[in-house]
Every structure is written in C-alpha cells, then in structure tokens.
C-alpha cells in the first residue's frame, strides 16, 4: 500500500484569521453546497495529478464547517448527526477525498465530547474553532491481532509517545494528530487518545499513500520517536467503550455518508454523459441515448437504490442523535444497528452508481481526460474501510438473537 518514492511534506500553518462560525444546521448545509461547487471544478485534475488540496482545505476550514459539531456550550453550532452526514455527502459528491479528510477530525471531537475532561473540551474545542485541524493516527502496520504497539511511556521526565502508524488520513494536513496509544497500568494495557502537535520534535509524517482511490486524502504513515506530550493532551479511549457511547456509530455513519456522496456524484455524471455524449444502441429504435428504454430502466434503478441508501443514512442519523442525547445499552445498540444497515446499502448503491456510469455511458466515458473512473476508484477504495459482510452478521444477530453489537469503531 505504500510507495517507495519519498514525497516532500508540507507543514500545516496556523489559520491567519479565525474561521467563520456556523450558526445552525441550515447554515451548515448552505455552506456545504457552496464548498461543493468550488471543490468540484478541479476535482478530476487533483485526482489525476495527485495534487494535494492545501488551498481547498484552507477554504474548507475557513468556512467554519470543521467546527460545526462543537457543542453549543463551547461556542459551536452543535449540528445534528443528520446534518453532518448530509454535509459530508454533499462534499463527497464533488470530491471523495475532501469529504474523507475531516472524517477523523469529527471522530476526535466526538471522543472529546464523550470522554474528555472539562478542561480538555475547553482547550481543544477552542483550538478547532480557531482553525486547528485534527488528523488521526489509529491503525498500525503488521498488527493482525489489532493489538496496539504504539506506546504512551510515562517517566519522571515526562510522557512520551513511541511507535508508528499507517492509514493516517488527514495527518498530513493536521495541526494536531490524535494518536491511539496504549499504556501499562496495573499489569494491563489501557488505551488512550493522545493529541500530538503536528510540529512536535520526533513526529515524522511520510506521504506514502498510493492507493488507486482517495488519492489526495494524505492517508500515509506517521512515526513517533519519543514525542513528548502533556498529560492534559491525553484523553481516555478504552473507558469510552467500556460504557455505551456513540463513538462507534458516529464514526461509522460518516463513512456511510462518504460512500453515499460519491455514489450521487457518479450518478450526476451519468446523467450528464447520457444526455450530452452517449449514443443510443442501434436496436433501441430511438435517436437519443436518453430515450433508450433499457437505459431509462437502469437510471431509475440506480436512483432508487441511492435514494433508499440516503433514507437509511438519515434514519441512522436520527438514531445516533437520540443515543447522544440519552446514551444507554439500548439506544447505542439501536444506533449501531441502524448505521450498519446504512453502511450495507451505501456500499452497494455507491458501487452500483460508479459501475453504471460506464455501462450506460459507453466506451467514450473511459477517456482519461475525463477521469470518470475516479468515482469507482474512490468508492471502491473507501468501502474497504471495514468488511461490509460483517454488517450483515451484526444486523442478523441483533434481530434474530437479540445480540447487541460489540462497542468499537467498526460497527
């Protein structure tokens, strides 16, 4: 998954001016539509040239959307999960990579909301509202047992992070890198999320992501060589899964929104291509591809499946919002299952839309200058985040046996 070529890494600079503050849910969606129109213009070129979207991210941050989930008590809009997923899908339809980059930013904010101390919430929420971006360093290379090797070492001289991470989406562009670490406590390993400053001595960002999709997400590697962190930057992580919280379903529903948005982007491209450039099949008896009855059938099928997936995402968002308001075993389990159902359908609908883009548009749609294959590459890559086959198992086990799903970020 990594490239042997070393690419230079740019440093994320502090915001020159404070971002706008999103007023409410309606304002968030209005801003998302404006940004999507902006991002769509050069999305194909950015993907083809692997042009990292630094300028776009500055506009994205300045818009205020990155602070939109900060609770109202801390100066943010505290937008609903339903609205957040709609905003993510709007951006994803324009550029799948730009939709994914802040996913772990919002994830870290949810970890803070659920498990952070009052002082930690005040500090990091204020930093985000001031324009700081949060990346991630969660996954590791060569850990099939999912045990974490990156350590939080506590010494009289201070606290230090040591280890290496991969699939670090957004870390390349971040000011802080929330990093999953383990610490030895009473002969057991306890996990924490350490918020590591991007410019701290010992942090090495490696731009080595070379997946065929989501090319500009910056999902490369991060190395931590005895990086000092302050205790107030370390947030409990395992403890937030020992009780029913919405961290898992909140993370998963954002993935569903990304896949949904990419699917809708592919569908809109299909409509444009069929209307303007595609040719009807010679046996169809029509003069325009847009009048081909078999094409119309397939267009209708894709639109129906996308709309059904959209409805499931919105439904799941309401379950997550309810669980955030009243977290308990039942509300969190119901949210997790609703999100798993949405993940199943957004995976299928997104992939279908990207595939039908070529089937219905014809050979000319494969021209490299259009770079329409980015939709399939992006949705295929992103849907591999975790295996959708296990979503079916969780849904079936819940409804047949009353078995609540496990509490972690993959359900």
Automatic annotation (TrEMBL):
Alphabetized GO MF terms: oxidoreductase activity
Protein name: SfnB family sulfur acquisition oxidoreductase
Organism (species): Shinella oryzae
Assigned keywords, A-Z: Oxidoreductase, Plasmid
UniProt keyword Oxidoreductase present: yes
Protein EC: 1.-.-.-
InterPro entries: Acyl-CoA_dehydrogenase, Acyl-CoA_DH_C, Acyl-CoA_Oxase/DH_mid-dom_sf, AcylCo_DH-like_C, AcylCoA_DH/ox_N, AcylCoA_DH/ox_N_sf, AcylCoA_DH/oxidase_NM_dom_sf, S04_starv_induced_SfnB
Location of the Acyl-CoA dehydrogenase/oxidase N-terminal domain: 31-132
UniProt similarity note: Belongs to the HpaH/HsaA monooxygenase family.
The Acyl-CoA dehydrogenase C-terminal domain, residue ranges: 253-386
Record-linked Pfam families: Acyl-CoA_dh_2, Acyl-CoA_dh_N
Superkingdom assignment: Bacteria
Oxidoreductase in keyword set: yes
């Amino acid at each position: 998954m990594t490239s042997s070529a070393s690419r230079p890494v740019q440093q994320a600079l502090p915001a020159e001016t404070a971002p706008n503050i999103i007023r409410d849910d309606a304002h968030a969606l209005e801003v998302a539509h404006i940004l999507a129109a902006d991002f769509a213009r050069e999305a194909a070129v950015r993907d083809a040239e692997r042009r990292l979207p630094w300028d776009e991210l500055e506009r994205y941050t300045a818009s205020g959307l990155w602070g939109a989930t900060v609770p109202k008590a801390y100066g943010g809009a505290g937008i609903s999960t339903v609205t957040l997923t709609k905003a993510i899908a709007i951006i994803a339809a324009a550029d799948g990579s730009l939709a994914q980059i802040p996913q772990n930013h919002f994830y870290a904010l949810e970890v803070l909301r659920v498990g952070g101390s009052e002082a930690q919430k005040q500090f990091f929420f204020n930093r985000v509202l001031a324009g700081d971006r949060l990346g991630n360093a969660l996954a590791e290379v060569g850990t099939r047992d999912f045990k974490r090797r990156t350590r939080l070492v506590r010494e009289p001289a201070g606290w230090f992070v040591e280890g290496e991470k991969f699939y670090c989406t957004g870390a390349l562009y971040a000011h802080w890198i929330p990093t999953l670490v383990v610490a030895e406590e009473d002969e057991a390993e306890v996990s924490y999320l350490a918020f590591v400053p991007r410019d701290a001595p010992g942090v090495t960002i490696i731009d080595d992501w070379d997946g065929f999709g989501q090319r500009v997400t910056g999902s490369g590697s991060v190395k931590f060589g005895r990086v000092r962190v302050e205790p107030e930057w370390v947030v409990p992580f395992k403890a937030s899964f020992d009780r029913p919280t919405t961290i898992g379903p909140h993370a998963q529903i954002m993935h569903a929104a990304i896949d949904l948005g990419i699917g809708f982007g592919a569908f809109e491209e299909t409509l444009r291509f069929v209307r303007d450039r595609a040719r009807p099949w010679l046996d169809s008896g029509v003069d325009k591809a847009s009048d081909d009855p078999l094409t119309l059938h397939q267009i209708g099928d894709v639109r129906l499946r996308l709309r059904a997936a959209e409805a499931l995402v919105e439904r799941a968002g309401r379950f997550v919002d309810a669980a955030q308001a009243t977290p308990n075993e039942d509300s969190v389990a119901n949210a997790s299952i609703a999100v798993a159902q949405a993940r199943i359908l957004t995976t299928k609908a997104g992939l279908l839309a990207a595939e039908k883009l070529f089937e219905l548009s014809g050979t000319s749609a494969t021209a490299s200058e259009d770079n329409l294959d980015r939709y399939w590459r992006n949705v295929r890559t992103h849907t591999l985040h975790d295996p959708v086959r296990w979503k079916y198992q969780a849904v079936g086990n819940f409804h047949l046996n009353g078995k609540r799903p496990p509490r972690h970020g993959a359900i």
